[in-house]
Design a protein that fits this description.
473 residues; alpha+beta; 5-stranded mixed beta sheet; 10% strand; globular
């Protein structure tokens, strides 16, 4: 059946908290499936873990589409991983997953690269000499170097001008994508071609980033050894050569450039913010930091560099990292999704749509007729008692063992789950344990006065500005 008029209400949420409260109230009144209007756009809301699981996992193929974003479509033209659909998306995603999982074919592993960067990060933090500092820049350089190492086999000095320019343009584009102006452009695509605005700067930054990737690709084409690939670009170029007689268009330089930029965007900004937010939470909840450091000393010691094998012996640290991701709710609105065909879901007919976005807070899935899906679950008070409190106990059982939760979908779920999930888990564990192994974190203000309320920037929730001291141990 179609959605009844009685289930339609007007709402213009101004931030994640208000949206969470609104959808929770509406779900209690109308059940787990209802229509919500964002301006003139009708949005179907699925509220609760069971409804979301049924949509994104049980009906994963039908709910696997990417929504229509005019600004991104203008520059990407359907290429890459994040904003593509159909055969190009499936083939590019499959190749990228395989390459990241089996990277180097016996060569230097990704874990080696992250460990090396963790050592570099520690050395940069030592240079602060225990003085108050804003960790934003340093915590951005580390994940950027990891991605550059995997894609280009480049490692930049933290003061390298190329690194600074790449990070600044990428960060600016993330901010622009989350701005009200870009939301307006999505609603009225005609504005893109005829009216000046922030989208012009987005296009300029994207062109510069893409130009750098194409330059590195040309260098790789000149030096390529098909029997000895060194990085992601080498692997892609080899695949291009293997598929050169195919009539399909998945393996092209254009798709390579957009795929690399997708890996950049997903792997740098989100990781930097999560690390920065994590240190703020550990400053606020000093007892958590102390327990993690006790576990580090007991399992790893003070001198051996942490490795991924350690994680299975460190349940409290593992729980702490999961709790950072749950508490911060980094990308509350996720990226817009779409159903790939007309579908009947729980007796409601949903026509093939262009957009549905994901909100990862109290487990709400939304999609709409033209339109959008949101997923809200990380603050479900039944799964995570007192969800507004930072507590690693949310991921520990009564015996202190790590407890997995089906509600933990920090990387989304289903067919569109983040390609870099494994790398992100590795970076968070190795970076945070290495920092806490070598330094005591000291706040410049009383921990009780630290504000951990997120500053929502359209796409991402960033921590408020703060400074801290890294005191060598």
């Amino acid at each position: 059946m179609d959605f009844p008029e009685s289930l339609q209400e007007e709402c213009s949420p101004v931030n994640t908290l208000i949206f969470r409260l609104v959808t929770s109230r509406l779900s209690k009144a109308h059940g787990p499936v209802f229509t919500l209007y964002f301006g003139m756009k009708p949005m179907v809301v699925l509220h609760g873990y069971k409804a979301v699981k049924e949509a994104l996992i049980d009906l994963g193929e039908e709910f696997s589409g990417r929504g229509h974003l005019p600004v991104n479509e203008k520059v990407r033209k359907g290429h890459g991983i994040a904003f593509s659909n159909g055969k190009i998306w499936k083939e590019t995603r499959r190749f990228s997953l395989m390459t990241l999982r089996n990277f180097g074919m016996g060569k230097r592993s990704i874990e080696d690269r992250v460990q090396e960067e963790a050592r570099c990060l520690v050395e940069e933090l030592r240079k602060t000499n225990g003085s108050p500092c804003d960790p934003t820049f340093i915590l951005g350089c580390a994940p950027c170097n990891v991605i550059c190492s995997i894609i280009f086999r480049n490692h930049f000095d933290y003061k390298d001008q190329i690194l600074l320019d790449l990070m600044e343009r990428l960060n600016e584009n993330i901010r622009i994508l989350g701005s009200p102006w870009l939301q307006l452009c999505s609603s009225f695509p005609a504005l893109i071609d005829y009216i000046p605005g922030k989208h012009k700067k987005f296009f300029e930054n994207f062109a510069c980033l893409k130009s750098y990737v194409l330059e590195k690709t040309r260098e790789h084409q000149t030096s390529l050894d098909i029997n000895n690939p060194q990085d992601f670009i080498d692997c892609f170029l080899i695949k291009m050569e293997q598929e050169k007689h195919s009539q399909e268009l998945e393996y092209t330089v254009e798709n390579l450039a957009n795929t690399v930029l997708d890996l950049f965007a997903a792997g740098i900004e989100t990781m930097s913010i999560t690390l920065r937010y994590g240190l703020l939470l550990l400053l606020k909840w000093t007892g958590v930091s102390s327990k993690v450091q006790e576990e580090i000393v007991r399992v790893i010691g003070r001198h051996r560099i942490p490795c991924m094998q350690d994680r299975s012996h460190m349940p409290y640290t593992d729980a702490m990292i999961h709790e950072i991701q749950r508490y911060t709710d980094l990308v509350p609105t996720n990226l817009p999704h779409a159903v790939t065909c007309d579908i009947t879901f729980r007796n409601y007919f949903i026509p093939k749509v262009r957009l549905f976005s994901l909100l990862l807070t109290s487990l709400v899935l939304k999609f709409s007729f033209t339109h959008s899906v949101y997923l809200h679950h990380l603050h479900d008070d039944k799964e995570f008692p007192n969800p507004e409190v930072f507590d690693p106990g949310h991921f520990l059982d009564e015996s202190g063992n790590f407890r997995k939760s089906d509600y933990f979908m920090a990387f989304s779920t289903g067919k569109r789950i983040c390609v870099g999930e494994g790398l992100a888990h590795m970076e968070l564990f190795l970076f945070l344990t290495t920092i806490l192994q070598k330094f005591t974190l000291k706040s410049v203000v009383d921990s009780k006065d630290l504000d951990t309320t997120p500053v929502v920037n359209g796409l991402v929730s960033v921590p408020p500005f703060y400074q801290l001291c890294f005191i060598p141990m």
